[in-house]
Amino acid sequence: xxxxxxxxxxxxxxxxxxxxxxxxxxxxxxxxxxxxxxxxxxxxxxxxxxxxxxxxxxxxxxxxxxxxxxxxxxxxxxxxxxxxxxxxxxxxx
Length: 93
Description:
- By secondary structure, the chain is an alpha+beta fold.
- It contains two helices and four strands; from the N terminus they run H-H-E-E-E-E.
- It has a four-stranded antiparallel sheet with strand order 1-2-3-4.
- It starts with a helix and ends with a strand.
- The relative contact order is 0.20.
C-alpha cells in the first residue's frame, strides 16, 4: 500500500499499472499534476486468505489552494506469482 501511495505522489503510472490486477486494471491513470499528496495513514492491514489481504487507509491530498480532501478506503489485494496486486476497494464513509 505504501509503495502505491508513493507511486501516486510521483505520478508513476508504470508502477501503479504493474501492481494493479489485470482483471480490474485501467488502461491508463489520469493524474492531476496540481494535486499535492499530504499523507497516508494505514489504519489496518489484515490477511483474509492464503493469497489475499485487505488494507484500510486514509490518504489526504489537495489541489491548488482548495481545501484538503481525504480518501478513506478499504482495498483488496491478491498475491499472484509472489507479488501483491491491488484488485479494488470500497470507500469508507
